[in-house]
Amino acid sequence: MISSFLSFVKKESLHILRDRRTLLVVIMMPVVLIVLFGFAISTEVNNVNVAVVAPDRTDGVIDAVNRIAHNDYFTFCGYIGRDEIDTQLRSGKVNAVIVFAPDYDRRMAQIAAGVPSKPIIQLIVDASDVNTAEAATAYMQEILLETESVQEMFETRMLFNPQMKSAYNFVPGILGLIFILVCSMMTSVSIVREKEVGTMEVLLVSPMRPNKIVLAKMIPYFFISCVVLAIILILSYYLLHVPMSGGVWGIFSLSLLYIVLSLSLGLLVSIIAKTQVMAILISSVVMLMPVLLLSGMLFPIENAPKFFQWFSVTIPARWYIEAIRKMMIQGLPLVAVWKEALILLGMTVTVFGISLVRFNDKLE
Amino acid sequence: MNVIEVNSLSKSFGKTKALDSVSFSVEQGELFGLIGPDGAGKTTLFRLLTTLLNPDEGTAKIEGLDIVKDYIKIRSRVGYMPGRFSLYPDLTVEENLTFFASLFGVKVKDSYDLVAPIYKQIEPFKKRQARNLSGGMKQKLALSCALIHHPGVLFLDEPTTGIDALSRSELWDMLKSLKTKGITILVSTPYMDEAFLCDRIALCNEGRILGIDTPPGIIGKFDSQLYTISADNMFALLGAARKIEGVLECYPFGQTHHLVADERFNEEHFREKLEYLGNLTLIPTEPTIEDVFMNLMKK
Fold first, then answer.
1. B153 and B36 within one domain
2. Where are the alpha helices (H) located in chain A, listed in sequence order?
């Protein structure tokens, strides 16, 4: 029976290899997503055009302006008059304006000496793109106050990702998304196709037991997922410079668990769905949408209404993305995300168990 | 010994009664045909006997094994060819055959002698993907795949539907030669003319079996007089003929109409009455399976 199992795996691999277009999409999708999210779609501070209003160009002002001008993420567009602020921002030529108080140096010294003072720098930011505006403001504040011997009221430090590079945030999200796509959608479609074409009838009327059929179907997709995982990790490390300081093996093993979980979800979908279209719909609406919207990939879950926050607990991708973020960006080892890992393991066992029990060896 | 034993098997899907208390039995090495139109319940019966469905009522045994209790054992002993094309279109002819052999834990070369007469015909195309085969070749491949593990019983659900006349007759020749090797075959077809190729047939309609016998025996059940009639105005003829005394039934049959009559029917009287339709002919005819089917259906 081992040979029949192997030949089933072989047959399943042939299906995948013969369907060149799908295979190409599966392999290319992570590459495109990484490039798209890493470079094209970014909420990070990049090329922010900054103009300065400074009535007195004192040493302190020039020093502060130099720090902005020499930063990779900001472009200094020159000094402008107070009355030009509105027109410059409206025309879109500048994204932010820094306004220095007239007696900046003197008051800065006062602050340094501990004397309370009114604000001495005003930041006027084009907030039509909220994410960029927020990030830019935070980063500018940090630069402007950085080397001053200012006794600040409080100190903000952006750890791990001081430039707020969005690629760092998106890589875990892409991982969470892509395995749902590759594993859940492809496995469910491949099982449902057999039902639709009619080969499932012949498979069932054979000595091969359904759980072996299911396992044999999962193996090639598991293998493809590993390849995709490797592609994503390599691209994010070398192209996006994601630190992965928590150790690549921790990330890899947690991802393997998540892949098995996604495969089991695909199996569950294939039990419910009667047609391939149905399988794709269920995978995309029931699985993909929550991953996009409620996993914290695009929007922080903390901002969602309470109900959705509760609901998001049931979404595997949420736990996976959280854990991967900790390992990739915060540099924590695998043991530090034991809670997420345990939850994922529990989900895997449950979903896989239900699928195996429910996978019927009859037609109804 | 009866290889297939079916006892008042019933199966419903929602409110539709797909099978209504069906009983029959098939002997070892017999070629048994289920003849009936679409919706007669043939496919449901196949799915019950191949253990893909459980019956609502009744029992059935395959080689002495119960279809509900011993379904796993049955699955390794039967060969099943569903009505739909049930091979992998993206695999080649050879890959399909090898896969189905390994599914049953056998090697192609061990069973080659049994499938060879069929498989030889498609072997020249063994590197071709199954999707690119003609309808007849697809069925030959499907039959080879269903036979590869030497099943004792072969279930063929409409193997000749949708293929050309030559392939149809070739397929029936293959079934006859398989029969001589002791394989019991249950085959279904909507084509009444294929009934004579079976040892025994069951006429089915709307989930019921109307009659079981050898093809000549079934014909013998036709106890009325049958005529073939025609005239210039065929449509008017149909209505008018039904009103003549002694006419039990009149229905279109190909280019002509068939007329079923009892003893009150008088040929002279019929001709007189309907002469006005032009070129009226009335020829006594031997009944076909289809006539018997129409006859039994009305009863």
1. yes
2. 2-18, 20-35, 59-69, 85-91, 104-112, 130-145, 166-179, 186-197, 199-204, 210-238, 248-272, 276-282, 289-294, 306-312, 316-328, 338-358
Same domain, B76 and B155: yes
- Asked if A362's CB is within 8 angstroms of B52's CB, the reply is yes
In the sheet that holds B16-27, the strands lie side by side as B16-27, B2-13, B57-62, B65-66
CB A241 within 8 A of CB A333: no
How much is the pTM?
Answer: 0.79
Question: Same domain for B32 and B82?
Answer: yes
Checking ipTM against 0.95, whether it exceeds it is no
Q: Which residues on chain A are in Cβ contact (under 8 Å) with B47? A: 201, 363
Q: Both B52 and B107 in a single domain? A: yes
Give which of B188, B183, B198 is closest to B148, Cα–Cα.
B183
Provide the residue count of chain A: 364
Of A159, A173, A164, the closest CA to residue A320 belongs to A173
* CA-closest candidate to residue B251, choices B263, B239, B243: B239
Question: Are B133 and B258 members of one domain?
Answer: no
What is the C-alpha to C-alpha distance for residues B299 and B296, in angstroms, rounded to an integer? 5
Q: What pairs with residue A97 in β-bridges? A: A51, A124
Structure-derived torsion over alpha carbons of residues B203, B208, B211, B212, reported in degrees to the nearest 10: 80
A82 inside 8 A of chain B by CB: no
Instruction: Give the number of other Cβ atoms within 10 Å of residue A306's Cβ.
Output: 7
Co-location of B212 and B79 in the same domain: yes
Of B78, B91, B105, the CB nearest to A14: B91
* Burial call B166-184: b when 16+ CB within 10 Å, e when fewer: ebbebbbebbeebbeeebb
Q: Kindly list the residues from chain A whose CB atom is less than 8 angstroms away from the CB atom of residue B103.
A: 4, 7-8, 203, 206-208
Q: Name chain B contacts of A364, Cβ cutoff 8 Å.
A: 53
Residue ranges, CATH 3.40.1710.10, chain A: 48-145
Q: How far is A10 from chain B (nearest CA, A)?
A: 9
B74 plus B189 within the same structural domain: yes
Question: At which of B216, B243, B265 does a domain end?
Answer: B216
The total number of residues written for chain B in this structure: 299
B268 and B175, same structural domain?
A: no
What is the count of structural domains for chain B? Answer: 2
Range of the domain at B281: 225-298
Among the three residues B187, B216, B245, which one is the final residue of a domain in this structure?
B216
- Give B59: exposed, middle or buried? Use CB within 10 Å, 0-12, 13-18, 19+: middle
Cβ–Cβ contact B108 with A under 8 A: no
pLDDT tens series, chain B, 299 aa: 789 999 999 999 999 999 999 999 999 999 999 999 888 999 999 999 999 999 999 999 999 999 999 999 999 899 999 988 889 999 999 999 999 999 998 888 888 888 888 899 899 999 999 999 988 899 999 999 999 999 999 999 999 988 888 989 999 999 999 999 999 999 999 888 899 999 999 999 999 999 999 999 999 988 889 999 999 988 999 999 999 989 998 999 989 999 999 889 999 999 998 888 888 999 999 999 999 998 888 87
* Rg of chain A taking only CA atoms, in angstroms: 27
Q: Cα(A38)–Cα(A35) distance, rounded to whole angstroms?
A: 5
B105's torsion region: left (phi>0), alpha (psi -120 to 50) or beta? left
Class of domain A48-145: alpha beta
